[in-house]
């Protein structure tokens, strides 16, 4: 009887587990545009404001029963059938005001795009600064954010964030870069900063990187491992952002679960294998998966005309954050490796912790 190697069995189990459902991207992207009075074509005490909100079908399903016919997928017909529910569950939960006075919603629509849902609405607002309160975040799981871009006549000055702790945000006018509690994002440097922030906020990516570095070996091998991970996730991040690879809601679920699976796999390898001859290949393959995860996050920012700038800047920011982690960890790990007994205990303890974290993420995402 042919016996499968432990590596093959372990890989098969983890890949099977990665088919479990997982979190959708925890970002909603909103763009608000106040139409200039001359563009509206009439003199009026109010002005027209247009808003577009993009989100995944999974996120929409957390807000209302979007699948009207119960066939397991959301179609344009489902969105049309849920028009009244969208008005109550989404737009009524995002009141827009101008100088403290409510804006009147005059119309709204919903379109199913290839990889997301686009909700749009038109308002009549009195003069004064705009502010929107995203009470919709109170019914979403912790960690969800709204990334809001503001524009006037097509000019986008930046972006601000809203979350459950700070759901009310001032919408900047032309020439402004943010309001109270705002985190401005403008130009190439802004995207680089977002990439760095995302890397350090992405605990699962850091856990995978730490698991790889624990048994990385010498400087040349560490550089090879980091390079393989960088090249791999840059490939899938770029391919997805450019539209060459399409991640629908179901595929995004597989990606999130596969990221957790990659962490479990590498941690188990650290515990059961003495040699890691294929670690570069393993790191490259799992780097492809992590790139899809990064792409899901980047898509939520609504790159629009900033596709090239946003893609390059965000990816560079991720690489800079990753380089900072390696620079800090590598000298410490090299000192530990000089004492084999201490190195062995360190690898075991940290790998067990990483394995537990990966298992928790897999369990959490499978139930999500």
UniProtKB/TrEMBL annotation:
Keywords: Membrane, Signal, Transmembrane, Transmembrane helix. Pfam families: HupE_UreJ_2. Residues 1-22 form the signal peptide. The keyword Transmembrane helix applies. InterPro entries: EF_Hand_1_Ca_BS (IPR018247), Put_HupE_UreJ (IPR032809). The chain crosses the membrane at residues 222-247, 253-273, 280-301, 307-333, 345-363. This is HupE/UreJ family protein. It comes from Pyxidicoccus fallax.
């Amino acid at each position: 009887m042919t016996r499968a190697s432990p590596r093959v069995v372990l890989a098969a189990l983890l890949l099977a587990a990665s088919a479990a459902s997982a979190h959708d991207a925890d970002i909603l992207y909103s763009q608000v545009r106040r139409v200039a009075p001359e563009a509206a074509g009439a003199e009026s005490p109010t002005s027209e404001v247009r808003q577009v909100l993009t989100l995944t079908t999974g996120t929409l399903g957390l807000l209302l029963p979007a699948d009207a016919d119960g066939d397991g997928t959301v179609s344009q017909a489902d969105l049309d059938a849920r028009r009244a529910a969208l008005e109550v569950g989404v737009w009524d939960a995002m009141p827009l005001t101008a100088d403290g006075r409510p804006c009147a919603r005059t119309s709204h629509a919903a379109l199913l795009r290839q990889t997301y849902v686009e909700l749009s609405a038109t308002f009549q607002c009195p003069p004064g600064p705009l502010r929107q309160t995203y009470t919709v975040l109170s019914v979403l799981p912790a960690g969800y954010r709204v990334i809001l871009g503001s524009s006037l006549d097509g000019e986008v000055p930046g972006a601000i964030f809203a979350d459950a702790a700070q759901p009310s945000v001032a919408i900047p006018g032309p020439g402004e870069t943010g309001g109270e509690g705002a985190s401005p994002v403008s130009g190439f440097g802004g995207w680089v900063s977002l990439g760095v922030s995302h890397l350090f906020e992405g605990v699962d990516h850091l856990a995978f990187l730490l698991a790889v570095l624990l048994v990385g070996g010498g400087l040349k091998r560490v550089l090879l491992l980091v390079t393989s991970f960088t090249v791999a996730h840059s490939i899938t991040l770029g391919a997805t952002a450019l539209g060459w690879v399409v991640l629908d809601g179901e595929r995004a679920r597989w990606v999130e679960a596969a990221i957790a699976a990659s962490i479990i796999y590498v941690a188990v390898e650290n515990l059961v294998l003495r040699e890691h001859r294929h670690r570069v290949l393993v790191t490259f393959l799992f780097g492809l998966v992590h790139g899809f995860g990064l792409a899901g996050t980047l898509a939520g920012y609504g790159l629009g005309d900033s596709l090239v700038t946003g893609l390059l800047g965000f990816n560079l920011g991720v690489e800079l954050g990753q380089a900072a982690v390696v620079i800090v960890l590598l000298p410490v790990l090299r000192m530990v490796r000089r004492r084999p007994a201490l190195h062995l205990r360190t690898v075991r303890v940290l790998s067990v912790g990483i394995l537990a974290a990966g298992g928790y993420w897999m369990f959490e995402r499978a139930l999500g």
